[in-house]
Each structure stands twice: as structure tokens, then as C-alpha cells.
């Protein structure tokens, strides 16, 4: 009797537990809220690398997992895209058009959909309208218009900077592009570059949602050696320190090593690019071309603000005539040797009695007239005199 009563009581208890379980889990959990997304830029505005979805759990329910649904167009139904126990989801590859998320409890009950998000390429920021650069020693400084930020400050995230090889002879950028980095400002310093090797650059803007816009106009740039505050004296004062040679490829390897560049040498040597002349009577210091293949011309008819103001070597106007060294003025040297043409830039910073101080730059890439600043959409070699 007692056993029967116990069994009956146990059955009633199990029945009650079953009712409680049904009451506890039959209702589906609350749907996720605040579904947002972040695209992953790839360099191609039309083909993002992927999308990251994120959401917040609903206020009620015991959630076991979340299910992600998507569709490629508004003309088709939503289909399962994946499932996760996290409140984020990474969908690799080109994203679908729309997504939503549901919550699933441990009994398999599924919530109503979250808010849906739509991938709208019309939210892309505009491409930077201009890209310029400054050639530096083993580096390139890039600058561009900030119109992407100015068009939508609240939605702007950063700029992405890309680079590829550049064929000077054909005037073409390479087909393999690499991401150099990102910047929130409209400028970027590309470092650890090989002097004399051209590279091609492009910049895009990315919104907070991850939309990557079209690229800026492409630009090429070639880093080159330079130095500041070099002292040379008049040959009449000290012949041993009156000459200057931009590059002496002593080992003939065609690579401009630091020890081969910007050499102050004796002014009576035939292989120097120029020597300094001091006319004590008139108080004039002059730059006199010496090597048979070296010619010089004035860079503009007014002082330049800095060595970096000497941007592109002019195509003509060079001569073997000596030029007076004037403080603040720029000079460009054309050096023809062994069938190759190279260019050097010089800015006089100070002229004293029988000496001068100057900054210089040199482009070891033959035929490349780029000394500092980029020209619109530029190879290698050596020479031993």
C-alpha cells in the first residue's frame, strides 16, 4: 500500500515537473537586438573580404546558440548562414545583401528575428581626389585630399594606403598590390624603402561600417638619398675640400650605398660633378661643373623654401656654365655617364667668405627625373667614371 502510494506520489511529482518544464521552456527566448555589422575591406570596393555581425542578447530566455540568416537579394527568401554561441559572427567572402539573427534555447525553441541589416554600397565614402608625395631618403611621404572625411565626418573611419611595383619604361603600376597601412589623417609615411626603386601608390577611404570607397588617382614615387648641411670650400681656399660628387659607385654593383654618396673630394679631380670657386675680388662663390657629363641649371628664378621644394628635374636648360651660389636658391644637375642619365638636386643654405653650406639629393635610378615631389603617373643601373 505504501509502495503504491509512493509510486502514485512519484508519478504526480514527475507529472508536475513535466508541466513546469513545459511552462519554463516552451516559450522561445527573446530575439537578439541591435544587430550591427562591419565590413572587412579588401582593396576592391565591390568585393569586401568579409563581414562581421554583432548583436546584443534579448532581455529574457536561456540562450544555447544564435542562428544567422541571410539572402543575396530582396527577391529571394532568407536561408541559414551559420550558427554560433557567441554574439558575433564572421561571414568570410563577399557578403550577402541582408542578414538577421535569432536566438535558440536548449530545447530548440527559436526566437523571432532580430532587426535586419542591409549592405548598401551607396554608403561608400568618396575617393580622395588628389595624391601627392615627397621622395625621401629610404622613404616616401604621401599626402592626399581629405574630402572623404569632409563629406561625412561622423561616418569616416580611416584611410587605407596601398602600393605596388612600378615600371618606369612602360609607365605602368604592377598588378600585385600590398597594404602599406592605415591612417586617420590625410598623410602617411612609407619607410624602409630601397633608394632608386620606384613604387606605385593608391589610397582609399573606409567608413565606420567598413565600406571601402574607390581609390585615389595612382601616383608613383622613387626614394633617393639626401643629406643636409654639407660644407665645401672654394678651390682657392682649400683644394682638398672643394669638390663634390653625388655618387661614386666604387664597387660597381649599381647600388647606391651610403658610403658612396655625397662625397666632398678634391676640387681638381676630373670625376667630381662640380667644384666650388671663390672670387675674393667680387666676393662671389660659384658652382662649376667638372665631370665631362655633368651640366647644371638654376631651379626657378627665386629662392626655394626647402630641399623638398626641388621636385622634378627639368627636361632641358642645362649647361656647363658656372652658376653663382645664392642662399636659398635651388640647382639641378644632369649627369650623363655611360649612356645613362641621372639627376641631383642642391639647395644652398649659406654662403660665406670662400665656402658654402648646402643640402643635396640624388636619384640613382637612371632616367628618373624625380628628386623630391611626385609627378603624375617612374629603374636601376650604375656607372664608374
Question: What would you note in describing this structure?
Answer:
The strands form six sheets. Strands 10, 11, 12, 14 and 15 form a five-stranded antiparallel β-sheet that branches. The protein is mainly β. It is 8% helix and 42% strand. The N and C termini lie far apart (120 Å). The chain has three domains: 33-119, Immunoglobulin-like (Sandwich), CATH 2.60.40.10; 131-220, Immunoglobulin-like (Sandwich), CATH 2.60.40.10; 226-363. It contains two helices and 25 strands. It has helices at residues 2-25, 147-151, and strands at residues 33-40, 50-56, 63-71, 79-84, 88-92, 98-105, 117-118, 131-136, 139-144, 156-167, 172-173, 178-183, 187-190, 199-207, 219-221, 226-233, 243-247, 261-265, 274-279, 284-289, 294-299, 323-324, 330-337, 340-352, 355-363.
Set out the fold topology.
Elements: H1 2-25, E1 33-40, E2 50-56, E3 63-71, E4 79-84, E5 88-92, E6 98-105, E7 117-118, E8 131-136, E9 139-144, H2 147-151, E10 156-167, E11 172-173, E12 178-183, E13 187-190, E14 199-207, E15 219-221, E16 226-233, E17 243-247, E18 261-265, E19 274-279, E20 284-289, E21 294-299, E22 323-324, E23 330-337, E24 340-352, E25 355-363
Antiparallel strand pairs: 1-2, 2-5, 3-4, 3-6, 6-7, 8-9, 9-13, 10-11, 10-12, 10-14, 14-15, 16-25, 17-18, 17-19, 19-20, 20-22, 21-23, 23-24, 24-25
Amino acid at each position: 500500500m505504501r509502495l503504491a502510494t509512493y509510486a502514485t506520489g512519484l508519478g504526480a511529482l514527475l507529472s508536475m515537473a513535466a508541466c513546469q518544464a513545459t511552462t519554463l521552456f516552451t516559450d522561445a527566448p527573446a530575439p537578439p537586438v541591435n544587430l550591427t555589422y562591419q565590413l572587412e575591406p579588401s582593396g576592391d570596393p565591390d568585393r569586401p573580404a568579409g563581414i562581421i555581425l554583432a548583436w546584443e542578447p534579448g532581455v529574457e530566455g536561456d540562450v544555447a546558440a544564435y542562428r544567422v540568416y541571410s539572402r543575396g537579394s530582396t527577391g529571394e527568401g532568407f536561408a541559414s548562414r551559420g550558427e554560433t554561441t557567441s554574439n558575433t559572427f564572421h561571414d568570410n567572402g563577399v557578403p550577402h545583401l541582408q542578414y538577421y539573427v535569432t536566438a535558440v534555447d536548449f530545447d530548440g525553441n527559436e526566437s523571432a528575428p532580430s532587426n535586419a541589416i542591409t549592405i548598401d554600397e551607396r554608403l561608400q565614402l568618396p575617393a580622395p581626389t588628389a595624391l601627392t608625395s615627397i621622395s625621401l631618403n629610404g622613404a616616401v611621404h604621401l599626402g592626399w585630399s581629405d574630402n572623404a572625411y569632409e563629406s561625412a565626418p561622423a561616418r569616416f573611419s580611416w584611410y587605407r594606403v596601398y602600393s605596388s611595383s612600378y615600371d618606369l619604361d612602360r609607365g605602368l603600376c604592377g598588378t600585385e598590390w600590398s597594404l602599406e597601412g592605415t591612417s586617420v589623417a590625410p598623410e602617411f609615411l612609407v619607410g624602409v624603402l630601397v633608394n632608386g626603386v620606384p613604387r606605385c601608390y593608391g589610397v582609399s577611404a573606409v567608413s565606420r561600417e567598413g565600406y571601402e570607397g574607390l581609390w585615389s588617382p595612382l601616383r608613383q614615387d622613387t626614394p633617393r638619398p639626401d643629406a643636409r648641411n654639407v660644407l665645401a670650400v672654394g678651390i682657392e681656399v682649400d683644394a682638398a675640400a672643394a669638390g663634390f660628387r653625388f655618387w661614386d659607385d666604387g664597387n660597381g654593383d649599381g647600388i647606391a650605398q651610403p658610403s658612396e654618396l655625397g662625397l666632398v673630394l678634391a676640387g681638381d679631380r676630373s670625376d667630381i660633378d662640380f667644384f666650388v670657386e671663390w672670387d675674393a675680388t667680387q666676393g662671389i662663390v660659384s658652382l662649376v661643373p667638372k665631370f665631362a657629363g655633368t651640366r647644371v641649371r638654376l631651379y626657378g628664378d627665386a629662392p626655394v623654401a626647402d630641399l623638398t621644394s626641388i621636385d622634378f628635374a627639368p627636361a632641358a636648360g642645362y649647361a656647363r656654365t658656372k652658376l653663382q651660389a645664392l642662399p636659398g636658391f635651388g640647382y639641378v644637375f644632369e649627369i650623363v655617364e655611360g649612356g645613362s642619365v641621372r639627376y641631383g638636386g642642391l639647395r644652398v643654405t649659406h654662403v660665406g667668405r670662400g665656402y658654402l653650406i648646402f643640402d643635396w639629393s640624388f636619384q640613382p635610378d637612371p632616367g628618373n627625373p624625380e628628386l623630391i615631389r611626385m609627378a603624375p603617373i617612374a629603374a636601376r643601373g650604375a656607372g664608374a667614371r
